[in-house]
Amino acid sequence: MRRHKLLYLLVGAAIAAALLAGLGALAYIKSGVFNVGATKPHTKLTQWVTEETMIHSIRSHAKGIEVPASVTQPTVVRGFCTYETHCVACHGAAAVARQHWVSGLEPQPPYLLDAADRWRPRELFWIAKNGIKMTGMPSWRDSLSDQQIWEVVDWLEVSRRMPSETYLQWRADGRCKALSRLPSPALSPIPHP
Q1: How many domains does the chain have?
Q2: What is the pLDDT of residue 58?
Q3: Has residue 159 been placed in a domain?
């Protein structure tokens, strides 16, 4: 009999604690105390929670994506041009800084020089196609074709093994204006990891 009373008491206390925690969270949200301004960085806990959630979500959602067989010279050049048009302002490149206004974003977009070391090609594809909520990373699903997104992934894969001056050289020689006219450095097809 005493066990039942103790059990009821514990269950009641757990329910009461959950209700109080919920009400406390609601009061905190409604109070406006949390500073949502981009000038104040996230706390370490908030940063860790959101980053871990993002990493595991991307890995989970990207599992079924099939990666094209290999990277070719034309896809790398087209990927460079798409990156130059849509990505470099926020993410920079080797020897190219991000635009100054990017400093006002919280969290700040990462440089993508080592993106291919941290993410698998299918994960990079998923990120570019779907974007990341509350980071400023847009979904390119409605603006770029899957092929164009894969070309950007190809560029990210290959560019990390190129000299840092390559981006500036390709920019200066007008590679994007004359994809078919200008010779490109020899790149053999490289299988995706």
Answers
A1: 1
A2: 97
A3: yes
3-state secondary structure of 70: strand
Domain residue limits at 125: 70-191
Q: At CB < 8 A and 24+ separation, what contacts does 45-48 make?
A: 47/107
pLDDT of residue 21: 94
CA 35 to chain centre: 24
What is the average per-residue pLDDT within 73-79? 92
Residue from 89, 129, 93 nearest 114 by CA: 93
Look at residue 5 and tell me whether its pLDDT is greater than 80: yes
Which value, to the nearest 10 degrees, does the dihedral of the CA atoms of residues 128, 131, 136, 140 take? 60
Look at residue 187 and tell me whether its pLDDT is greater than 60: no
Q: Is 14 inside a domain boundary?
A: no
The count of residues in the chain is 193
Residue 83: count other Cβ atoms within 10 Å of its Cβ.
22
Q: What sections of 97-160 are H helices per DSSP?
A: 115-118, 121-130, 146-159
Select from 67, 63, 91, 64 the least CA-distant residue to 159: 91
- Residue at token pair 């400093």: 103
Split at pLDDT 50, 70, 90, the class of 8 is: confident
